[in-house]
């Protein structure tokens, strides 16, 4: 089910939410017209209030989760950039030929992460990029092993910075692969459709249609759902994590 949701853009799913809510509201109005208008307090309004409160909670919690993951992706880019910068600085303390060889690999890896980050790819492209990334890590490890075997005095610092690079890269990939479960998206759809139906039914029973208010409510919910789903699609969403930290690190490395 998660793979099915990933095939569609956020705007398409959000539009489906809006159409579903509009359809439920319209169907509720037609259903409510079959009932006579009642005087006094209508106990049905309590169900509308409860469903609206539940929808508000779900929107708030899912928005908080999506925003939190966006912040984690942003921090992951900063962490990887800092790790690459530390590793590059540590490599500059090595003797030749290890210094130039290791710096070239680090610079190549940083540039590749900036131009074509493998966590934003899919299918065969993602597998190829991941394989190339592992190959670069292997080259870094081999060069560091050779430098340590040659008796470099910064063996501990070299090992720690290399571990930080691999760990930060794995953390960044994990953050980009994290998605909202499909069950949460389906629950949001149901929680949006039910209040729309109940509101339409109430308006139909009272013979008072508040079209502007109802449509405005549907549009606002649709926009909130779009932002949540856009946060949930880091590989193609309109809200993307800035790569400026990585760009600045690459500029500091020179050529």
Could you give a short account of the major beta sheet?
none
Estimate percent helicity. over 70%
Please tell me the total number of domains: 1
Low-confidence stretches: none
Mean pLDDT: 83
What is the end-to-end distance?
A: 46 Å
| Class per helix and strand makeup | mainly alpha
Q: So what's the overall shape?
A: rod-shaped
Number of E strands: 0
Radius of gyration of CA atoms, rounded to a whole number: 27 Å
Content of β-strand? under 5%
N-to-C series of helices and strands: HHHHHHHHH
Number of DSSP helical runs: 9
Structure explained in plain terms:
By secondary structure, the chain is mainly alpha-helical. The chain has one domain. The protein contains nine helices and no strands. Helix 3 (44-91) runs parallel beside helix 8 (211-231). The longest helix is centred in the N-terminal third of the chain and has 48 residues, at 44-91.
Short overview:
Helix content is 78%, strand content 0%. It has 255 residues and is an all-alpha fold.
Main features:
mainly alpha; rod-shaped
Explain the layout of strands and helices.
Layout: H1 2-6, H2 10-32, H3 44-91, H4 98-115, H5 123-149, H6 155-177, H7 182-206, H8 211-231, H9 244-253
